[in-house]
Structures are given as structure tokens and as C-alpha cells.
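W.,

You were right to be curious about this one. When I first looked at the sequence I had no strong expectations either way, so I just let the prediction run and decided to look at it fresh. Below is the sequence, 78 residues in total, followed by the output.
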Amino acid sequence: MNPVRLERAGAATAVAVPVGPEPLQAMLAEFVSCVASGERPVSDGSMGHRVVRLLEAADQSRREDGAVIELEPVEARR
């Protein structure tokens, strides 16, 4: 691990930052592994649908000055 140097108003601090695989690369590797093994990927279409619903509700809440937006439950993964 290489330290990252943080500077603010003349004070400097070295912080060790762990470096892992790039997120998209890790997701792609997991997807390829699932295609080969027949297993279901962690981030499948169902998860994508839930994320889009959440983002749309957050946007609607923002447009409505922070109103609470109720979401219908989504069927669990099988």
C-alpha cells in the first residue's frame, strides 16, 4: 500500500489507502464467472430494477420538497 499525502493549510498527513480492483472490472469478472458456472450474479436485472425505482422515488421526493414517497414492496429474489 502506498500512502496518499493529504495537505490542508500547511499541515500534511500521510494516509495508507487500500487499493482493490476497479469496481466495474470486479463486477464484470463476477458476471463472467456466473456465466461460466450458471450461478446468479449479485447484481442481476432484479437488483437493477430496485435501484431504478429507488432513484426515481428520490428524484420525485426532491421535486416535491422532500416529500416521503412510499414504494410498494418488491418480490424477493429466488
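Here's what jumped out at me. The longest helix spans residues 45-63. And, maybe more interesting for your project: The two ends are 40 Å apart (CA to CA).

Coffee later to discuss?

I.
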